[in-house]
Structure formats: structure tokens, C-alpha cells
Write a structure and sequence with these properties.
The chain is an alpha+beta fold. The chain has helices at 28-38, 43-46, 48-52, 63-74, 151-172; strands at residues 18-20, 24-25, 82-93, 102-115, 119-129, 135-146. Strands 1, 2, 3, 4, 5 and 6 form a 6-stranded antiparallel sheet that branches. The termini are far apart. The relative contact order is 0.19.
Length: 180
């Protein structure tokens, strides 16, 4: 993805817009570093011998590591003027994520709501998808996205534009009709 593309403002987003992110491979180091960072050293994630006897037959990535990958990959697909992360809604962990899986994110805009003069609230349906096209996690992220131009300035600019159009009409009205 071209990182030089300017981020989108709230007013540039539309219901149903969708994006596909770049992908990344989940590594054993990712899982170990996440365990070290969070303190979640459950052997289901970190002990291959223990995990081999468990329900998945081998170590799996932490569910929250999957959400973290999703958040990072989708932060540039699309690139927007995010002001705040508000909530996660209706999250599902549908399949395990294994070491060696290649994951990417599919994002679609479900809802757009004005939020004051400077922001809009965006409801993003996001899916973490593995190399086999299987959805491994999905749910809704809610964020505040800045407007490129606050509503108060948009209204004043619209007023200036309409006043400018009125003065052009006044200037043009004294003209003689063509062909008389």
C-alpha cells in the first residue's frame, strides 16, 4: 500500500466502502513476545508439548494477539484521521490462529454518524482472515474519525459560496437577452 496517500476524513467515507489489508505471517516469536508483554503464558499458547494434547493439537495464538494484528493491519486499510478508538462490539473468535498462518483484514463500513462539529463515529465490520480464506475473528470496531473541515467551517464556506453565486447572478441579470 502506498503510505504517502493522505488519510481520509469522515466526510470522505461512505456506507459499504470496503478495503483489504496487507497480510502478515504469525510467528512463534510473536506469540512468545505477546505472552511476555501481557503475562499470559498459558501453555495452550507457549508450550508445544502441552498444546499437542489440547483441543487444537498444537499451540495457538492468543485471541487478543489476533485482535492486535487486526488493529495494526487495518490501521492503513483504510488510512483515516482516527481521533479515538471507542469500542469493540460483538466480537467472535471463530477459528484458532496457528503459528505460520498468514492473516489479513477485510474491513467494511457499516454505519456513519455525525459526532459534533469536528468528528464522525464510524462502525467498521472487520474480519481477520487466514490463508485459506477462513474468517478466524470478526466483529465491529467503533472509532471517531476527524472531519477534514469542521462542520462550522463547511457551513460558513457554503454561505460564502452561495453569496458569491447570488452576486454573480445580480451582475449577470442586467444583460440583454441574446438575439434581441
Amino acid at each position: 500500500m502506498n503510505q504517502s496517500v493522505l488519510p481520509l476524513g469522515f466526510e470522505e467515507l461512505q456506507l459499504g466502502d470496503s478495503w483489504i489489508s496487507a497480510s502478515r505471517i504469525v510467528t512463534e516469536d510473536d506469540i512468545q513476545q505477546f505472552a511476555d508483554l501481557t503475562g499470559d503464558r498459558d501453555p495452550l499458547h507457549t508450550d508445544p508439548v502441552f498444546a499437542a494434547e489440547g483441543p487444537f493439537g498444537k499451540p495457538i495464538a492468543h485471541g487478543l494477539l489476533g485482535i492486535s494484528f487486526l488493529a495494526g493491519l487495518s490501521s492503513v486499510a483504510p488510512r483515516v484521521l482516527t481521533s479515538a478508538f471507542v469500542s469493540i462490539r460483538s466480537w467472535s473468535f471463530t477459528k484458532p490462529v496457528y503459528i505460520g498462518d498468514r492473516v489479513h483484514v477485510l474491513t467494511e463500513i457499516l454505519d456513519l454518524k455525525p459526532h459534533g462539529r469536528r468528528h464522525g463515529e464510524v462502525h467498521w465490520h472487520r474480519k481477520l482472515i487466514n490463508q485459506d480464506g477462513q474468517t478466524v475473528q470478526e466483529g465491529i470496531f467503533v472509532t471517531l474519525v476527524s472531519r477534514k473541515v469542521p462542520l462550522s467551517l463547511q457551513r460558513s464556506r457554503l454561505g460564502e459560496m452561495s453569496r458569491g453565486a447570488e452576486s454573480q447572478q445580480v451582475e449577470q441579470s442586467p444583460r440583454e437577452p441574446v438575439g434581441t
